[in-house]
Structures are given as C-alpha cells and as structure tokens.
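Task: encode each sequence below as structure tokens.

Item 1
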Amino acid sequence: MEKMEKRYELLRREMGKIGVDAIYVSSAENHQYVTDFDNPDGWAFITMDKAWVYADPRYIEAARAEATSLCKVCLPGEPTIPSVCAEESIRTIGYEDFKLTCAELERLRKSFEGQDIRFVPLGGMLTSLREFKTDDEVASIVAAQRIAEAAFDHICKVLTYDMTEVEVAAELEYYMKKHGSQKPSFDTICVSGTASSRPHGVPRNVKLEKGFLTMDFGAMVNGYHSDMTRTVVIGKADSDMKRLYDTVLKAQLAAEAAVAEGKKNFDIDKIARDIIYSAGYEGKFGHGLGHGVGLEIHEEPRLSPKTGDEVLKAGQIVTVEPGIYIEGLYGCRIEDMMYVTETGADLLTDCPKELIEL
C-alpha cells in the first residue's frame, strides 16, 4: 500500500504539471505500474483522487485479488468512463500517445460524444517515472537476474556439440521458467559460429557451429525483466578470437567503472566505443552501449552516441553491453546490468565473464 500511495503521489504531481484531470492507461506495462495488476486485456482510469481498473470477465477475479486496494475494480461499462468524467467534472484526459493506436484513440473520443473533453498526449510522462526504480522494483529485477545466471551455469554444464541453437535457447528458457521465471524477458538470442555476427540473430535449427556462441536472455519476476549476454566458445578460441573477446571485455569493464550519477550517457558509450575502435574494430560496434530495464526490456535511459546532454541519475538501471561483430565471420557481446546510486553504481549481475571454452 505504501509503495502505491507514493507512486500515486508522484503520478498526480506529474498530472498537475501537464494540466490533465485524468489519465487513460491501456498499455500492459504502464497498467501494471499504476495498478499493480498485469491486465492482459483492459485499461485503467486515474483521476486526481480516484482510480479504476477495468477488467473483462476473464480477468476480473484476478484483478480483484491483485490490483492495489487504492483502485476500484470493475467490469467495462460499470461505470463507463464518460459517466465518471461527468460525475467528477473531468475536462482533460491524458492518453499514451506512444502506445495508443489512432483507431483506439478515435473510439475513445467517440465514446464522449456530446461531452466537452480535451485529450492531451502524455508523451514520456509515465516512462520517465518508471526510470527510477524503488527498492522493491530493484529486488524483483535482481531476483530475475539470479534465475538467468543459474540458467547460464546450467547450460554450460549440459551443452553438447549435438545440440542446435534452438535447443540451447529452449533449454535456457525451460530452466528459467522451472526455477521461478514467469516467462522469458524476450525471445532468447542464441547464435553460433558465423551467425554470432548478428547482434539480434534468431536461433536456427542447426547444430552449434564451432567458434563463438552468443546467448542473450533474461527472466521475469513480478513483471520485471532481467537482461544479460554471455559469449562462450564452442571448441577452442584462436588468437584472433581471444583478442576480440578481450577487447569487448576491456571496453565493458572500463564503461562499467565510469557509470555514476551525473555522468553523460554519451560519454559512457564513448569510453567503450573508443576502446573498441582504437583496437582496430572501427565500425564493428553498431548499436548503443546500453538501455534501461524494468517493466519493459528496453526502457529509458539509453547509453548511446545519440543521447546528447542526458546524464545518468540515481535510481536508474542500465545495461552495459558492448560488442564486436564481423559479418560472415563471428561476433561477441558481453552484457551486465548496473544500478546507478548517489555514490556510483552497483553491479547487479553476478556471473563470470572470463572466456569459457566448451
């Protein structure tokens, strides 16, 4: 209760700043954030002093059991949102312009026929609030990460050359779910040999190729994601592979050491990028260094060359995941999560990073 009271206090403060009387929340992650209930097919309506969770009959029992008691749980139309607005003298409604489709917004507008209602895009209001993790949110992310780490330890013990990339990915996901994960954070990436040069490659139904095997995966606890990447070697690494791996690891460690409140996001990315490029791999690190993690697997903030004057702030969680990808040959990525504090940053990932040959 205390957690949600604080969350509502912050939410209503932001509503006041942008001048809305209420907000209409339909995206799954923001619905969970404002109600504590993961509603697969419903919406929430929050005013300055009241809140409603609308759940259809398939989920109404779960909503009554799981949603915060600060919300009234009801079936769609009981009451209707237009009737709530009439009763509460609501004149402005904020909506998730990053999430709501044009068709959904038009249906919402039409339901207010005859009422003088102004619709205001919320922009990044909710996602900005979600950037800053409370202790319970951090605990859920760490719990998910521990499950993923155990899965990595497990796969290193059971992996055989006869397994396919699809089988390795399935084994990781099965282990995580068996040990407490609600579901994978995202479709597990598991690519070997020449396919490891694809940062977001899709697991193939082929036996593992010799060379690098990159596994990018995560678990979910209480709706919160974890995210980690480890690259191992199937067989033995040659000198070029070792040099590439060592460069990625050096870049990651240097960037992690620099993560702290007040540091420019751009500069953290630049630390890793400069190490990789100066080692002769210029142009081979094509994505940003990291991203936020929480109720979504990719959230704000970002660590990339495109973040301008943005700076890290205490309470944010970011990944640090440099990589080197040589098309047609191989690739390598190493990824951890870090929690920014007022005195520096805490490494949330507890998993070996030395080169492993299997």
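Item 2
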Amino acid sequence: MKGMGNLQKMLKQAQDMQENMQHQLGELRVEGSSGGGMVVVTLDGTKNLMAIKLDPEVVDKDDVEMLQDLITAAFNDAGAKVDEEVSQKLGAMGAGLKIPGLF
C-alpha cells in the first residue's frame, strides 16, 4: 500500500499545480496590436478581453470594416501570445511534477 501514498501525494501535487496555474492565468496580461499599434487589445491568460485601445485616427465612420479587421487582427495577435505564454508555463510546471515514465 506504499504506492497508494505516493499516488495520493502526486495527485495532491498535481491539484496544487493546477490551482496555481489557474491563478497565474487570471493574473496574466498580454497585449496584441495591429495597424502599427493603432489598435491594442489586452487579454488575460484565459483569453478574456480586458481592454481595447484605439488611436483616434483609426476611427473612421466611413470605414468601419477596416476598424473591425484591425480589432480582429489585434485580438488574434494577443491570443497567439497567450498560447505561447501558457505553453511556456505548462512546460515549466510539468518539469516540477515527477511522474515516472513521463518526465
């Protein structure tokens, strides 16, 4: 039954790491931009939109489609950066979890 104690310890460690990761993702802020920085969006680590900054020059009532495209591009840029940050954090956290045969 010694193995059960180790298994419970590993499960507890994994649960603690998951809670820590969720907290870190909630605190993470990543910016993405488009149009040479005329549109900037900020996402958290779970890709919730936190803020949008628009340069007044990009707001043109006669070209709303361009603004929509710039916002979409900035959001996608930030989303890719979130993915990269999360991947790095998961890799670092996984190295701390010593599961035989996996790490």
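Check on item 2: The helical segments are 2-27, 64-96. The chain has a mean pLDDT of 87.
End of task.
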